[in-house]
Amino acid sequence: QVQLQESGPGLVKPSETLSLTCAVSGYSISSGYYWGWIRQPPGKGLEWIGSIYHSGSTYYNPSLKSRVTISVDTSKNQFSLKLSSVTAADTAVYYCARSVIVVVVAALGWFDPWGQGTLVTVSS
Amino acid sequence: EIVLTQSPGTLSLSPGERATLSCRASQSVSSSYLAWYQQKPGQAPRLLIYGASSRATGIPDRFSGSGSGTDFTLTISRLEPEDFAVYYCQQYGSSPQNTFGQGTKLEIK
C-alpha cells in the first residue's frame, strides 16, 4: 500500500524559501508514475503546484512557475518542493500525492493517494 | 485555463436521500478527463471518480459520476452518515494545468 508523508518547517518568514519533503513508502518512485504537490489555503480550495517524474522531468503551475522547484531523490524514495519569496498568501496546507498522468506534455492527471498534509504558515 | 464552477455551494440533505452535485467547465474538458474527490475535516482529499465515471478502488457503488463536455455530475444514491463532507472536481484534460473546482459542502439537514 502506497503511503506518502510530508515533512518540513511549519513556520517560514516572509521573503524566505519554503522547503518540504515527501517520503514515499510501499512503492518505488523509480517504478513509474508522476508525483505532485497540491496546496490548500485555510478554508479554501485546492491548487496544483507542480509534478515530477522519476527522471526529473517537471511541470509547474504557470502562476507559480517562477518561484517553484520540485526535485526527486530516488535513492531516498522521496521528492521535494521549494517555493521562494513566500508571502502570507502562501500560507496553506501542502499535500503531496501520486499522480496518474494522461497528458504527459503538461503532467495532467488525477491524484491518488495523498499524504496527510502539512500546514505551513508564512509569518514573521 | 479551464475554470470549474461547482454548484450548489452547500447542499443540505438527510441520510438516505440522493445527492446530486454539479461541476461545470468554462470550456469543454478533453476526453472527459474529470475527477471527483471527497474531503473530510482535517483530512486529505480522497479520490472517488476519474475519467468522469470510473470509480476509484474501494469506492462504494453508491457513488457515481457522469457527464461530458462542460457539464459533469457526481451522484450519491443513498447518503450514509460518513458521506457528509466537501467534494471537489478536477479537470486534467486541458493544458496548461490541472485545475480544481471551488468545492461543494454536503451537510446534514
User: Total helix count of chain A?
Assistant: 0
Largest interface, per-chain counts?
A-B, 24 and 26 residues
Query: How many helices of chain B?
Result: 0
Q: Give the SSE string of chain A.
A: EEEEEEEEEEE
Strand tally of chain B, please? 11
What is the overall pLDDT average of chain A?
A: 95
Mean pLDDT of chain B: 96
Descriptive notes:
The complex is a heterodimer of chains A (124) and B (109). Helices cover 0% and strands 55% of the residues of chain A. Chain A has strands spanning 3-7, 11-12, 18-25, 34-40, 47-53, 58-60, 68-73, 78-83, 92-103, 108-114, 118-122. The radius of gyration of chain A is 14 Å and the shape is globular. Chain A starts with a strand and ends with a strand. Chain B is mainly β. Helices cover 0% and strands 49% of the residues of chain B. Chain B contains no helices and 11 strands. In chain B, strands 2, 4, 5, 6, 9, 10 and 11 form a 7-stranded mixed beta sheet that branches. In chain B, strands 1-3-8-7 form a 4-stranded antiparallel beta sheet, with no helix packed on it. The A-B interface holds A 45-48, 61-62, 95, 97, 100, 102-103, 105-117 and B 30-31, 33, 35, 37, 43-47, 50, 56, 88, 90, 92-103.
Short description, anyone?
The complex is a heterodimer of chains A (124) and B (109). Helices cover 0% and strands 55% of the residues of chain A.
Write the topology of this structure.
The complex is a heterodimer of chains A (124) and B (109).
Chain A: E1 3-7, E2 11-12, E3 18-25, E4 34-40, E5 47-53, E6 58-60, E7 68-73, E8 78-83, E9 92-103, E10 108-114, E11 118-122
Parallel strand pairs in A: 2-11
Antiparallel strand pairs in A: 1-3, 3-8, 4-5, 4-9, 5-6, 7-8, 9-10, 9-11
Chain B: E1 4-7, E2 10-13, E3 19-25, E4 34-39, E5 46-50, E6 54-55, E7 63-68, E8 71-76, E9 86-91, E10 99-100, E11 104-108
Parallel strand pairs in B: 2-11
Antiparallel strand pairs in B: 1-3, 3-8, 4-5, 4-9, 5-6, 7-8, 9-10, 9-11
